[in-house]
Amino acid sequence: MLNNVSIRTLRAFIELAECRSFSRAADRTHLSKSAFSKLIGRLEREVGARLFNRDTRSVELTDEGQTLWEHARLLLRELDTTISGLQDQVGLRRGRVSVAALPSLAADFLPSVFAAYSAQHPGVSLYLFDRLADDCLALVRERRVDFALTAPGPGLTEFDTRTIRDERFYLICPRTHTLARRRTIRLSDLRGETLVNMVRTSSVRQHLNEIVTGGAISESTFEVEHLATLAGLIANGLGLGLVPELTLFQFRRPELVAVPADVPNLNRPLLVVKRKGIPLSPAAEAMLGLAEKTIATGIAPGVAPLGRRGEARRPLLGTKVIRKQRSER
Hints:
It is a single chain. With 329 residues, the protein is α/β, with parallel strands linked by helices. It folds into three domains: 7-90, Winged helix-like DNA-binding domain superfamily/Winged helix DNA-binding domain (Arc Repressor Mutant, subunit A); 95-163 and 269-297, 3-Layer(aba) Sandwich (D-Maltodextrin-Binding Protein, domain 2), CATH 3.40.190.10; 167-268 and 310-328, D-Maltodextrin-Binding Protein, domain 2 (3-Layer(aba) Sandwich). Helix content is 41%, strand content 21%. Strands 3, 4, 5, 6, 9, 10 and 11 form a seven-stranded mixed sheet that branches. The protein has a two-stranded antiparallel sheet with strand order 1-2. It has a two-stranded parallel ribbon with strand order 7-8. It is rod-shaped.
């Protein structure tokens, strides 16, 4: 086993094999001629073979030297490539980042995050999976993504998690509905109303399950997977909706209004979910930092911040109606 053959020694050997002069090889490796000769001598003793035939006029590789030169050159080339690649990854010049996220995040906030990240680190490849909460966790579990941005669900104990923000819920209703004139909505205001449901595997539905049970609020016969479908049903008078704040962009329609819900314990935590004990790559860590900042503040890159009461200063649905009612009162 060649315990004493260093990378420096192999580089010196290759220099001598290519320039065939002890003096020139010593100069290229920044060693004195005597120090260089001793280095080559130690290498020959270590491998147990003469690597060069020397005389006063030439230095030629032996057959054993030729074999070592071929393999050493490939070895150092692969090592240089590996180190260069690692340096690029650490410097965020290369790499890949895979993220799973709830559709509400993937459709509105994350595209601006990905665009800002790509502008800073164009050599990093980005992958995005828009999935419901359970599927987000499955992608982390299967190591198909670096991390997930999702809502709480069963099986979280096997992951590292932390909360980014808690979202309040909003009532979505037609502009002509009597509740559209309210400043806030309480649970008692919804008695006798009909809510259009999201599918049972959605994080929105899971957070509303306790609210809609008990008979005071009717459940629609519709069960939808996409928020755009929910918006269409509500716009046509087929029920109302309760949705988290970061989904409001899906309801920017002139015939709809969003009113903040004042219901105790009705909020949706948004989490970062990672595998336990496995640190993120520098590229993924940088992406997570940007995504967390965006979601926590509600400010997408290049977009104005949220208002004091959670109403967005960018043109979110219903803000003008809500403010008008406040001024009238």
